């Protein structure tokens, strides 16, 4: 299975040139202003793309999707999109799980405080999944932000990192930190920051084409 992976398009999704693949994955921040109209338009666009399956999660900019989850689910279903919200699915024997949750930073959507609040979401991730999709990265994994004073901050979630180490999914896909675009392998997991926009909110990073490993045992 070939995944075509994008994230953080912030309403500029129609500018993308997408390569061929089997499953189109979007890891959140689908809108710029978080409105219902933007959400519906995005789902219609995603559903119209020429892939066997289309999967997405929300991100911290997607206010309507947090405020109106039922209507957002209707928009997705009507467009033939699989919308994951602390939930999973199995597509052609590949097990996916998706969550929009990120550590709190100001007053954006789908954000939780450190400790029990955010860990409750990570405990929902089941054992033996193949592809984990979260909006934000785990701590220390493609999560560096350069601050104005010249320092570098790791902005990922430490409790998410602990959970991923326990579960060992084949792939962990995320965005949120635009300047973290890239990939690495650590502790048997392939991590991909698939942010499509750069830190100046410009479409500049290519969609990633990622093959799901054959030696997987996932199930949801």
Let me know the number of strands: 15
What's the N-to-C terminus distance? 18 Å
Domain module tally: 1
Roughly how much helix do the residues carry, as a percent range? Answer: 10-25%
Sheet having the most strands: 6 strands, mixed
Structural class: alpha/beta
Question: What does it look like?
Answer:
There is one protein chain. This protein is of the alpha/beta class and 220 residues long. It has a single domain (2-211), classed as 4-Layer Sandwich (Purple Acid Phosphatase, chain A, domain 2), CATH 3.60.21.10. Helix content is 21%, strand content 26%. It has helices at 36-48, 63-67, 69-79, 116-122, 158-167; strands spanning 2-6, 23-26, 53-56, 82-83, 87-91, 94-99, 102-103, 111-112, 131-134, 144-146, 152-154, 171-174, 182-186, 189-193, 208-211. Strands 5-6-9-12-14-13 form a 6-stranded mixed β-sheet, with no helix packed on it. A 5-stranded mixed β-sheet has the order 4-3-2-1-15, covered by helices on one side. Helix 1 runs parallel beside helix 3. The longest helix has 13 residues, at 36-48. The two termini are 18 Å apart. The model has no long low-confidence stretch (mean pLDDT 94).
Task: Furnish the topology, listing elements before pairings.
Layout: E1 2-6, E2 23-26, H1 36-48, E3 53-56, H2 63-67, H3 69-79, E4 82-83, E5 87-91, E6 94-99, E7 102-103, E8 111-112, H4 116-122, E9 131-134, E10 144-146, E11 152-154, H5 158-167, E12 171-174, E13 182-186, E14 189-193, E15 208-211
Parallel strand pairs: 1-2, 2-3, 3-4, 6-9, 7-8, 9-12, 12-14
Antiparallel strand pairs: 1-15, 5-6, 10-11, 13-14
């Amino acid at each position: 299975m070939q995944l075509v992976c994008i994230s953080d398009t912030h309403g500029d999704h129609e500018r993308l040139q997408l390569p061929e693949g089997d499953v189109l994955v979007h890891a959140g921040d689908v809108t710029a202003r978080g409105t219902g109209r933007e959400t519906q338009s995005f789902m219609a666009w995603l559903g119209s793309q020429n892939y066997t399956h289309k999967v997405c999660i929300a991100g911290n900019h997607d206010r309507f999707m947090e405020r109106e989850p039922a209507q957002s689910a209707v928009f997705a279903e009507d467009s033939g999109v699989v919308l994951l919200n602390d939930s999973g699915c199995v597509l052609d024997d590949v097990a996916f799980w998706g969550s929009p949750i990120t550590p709190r930073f100001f007053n954006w959507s789908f954000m939780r405080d450190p400790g029990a609040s955010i860990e409750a979401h990570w405990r929902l991730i089941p054992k033996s999944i193949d592809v984990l999709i979260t909006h934000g990265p785990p701590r220390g994994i493609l999560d560096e932000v350069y601050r104005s004073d010249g320092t570098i901050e790791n902005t990922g979630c430490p409790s998410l990192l602990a959970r991923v180490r326990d579960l060992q999914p084949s792939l962990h896909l995320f965005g949120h930190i635009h300047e973290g675009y890239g990939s690495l392998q650590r502790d048997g997991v392939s991590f991909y920051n698939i942010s499509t926009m750069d830190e100046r909110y410009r479409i500049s990073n290519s969609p990633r084409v990622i093959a799901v490993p054959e030696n997987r045992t996932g199930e949801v």
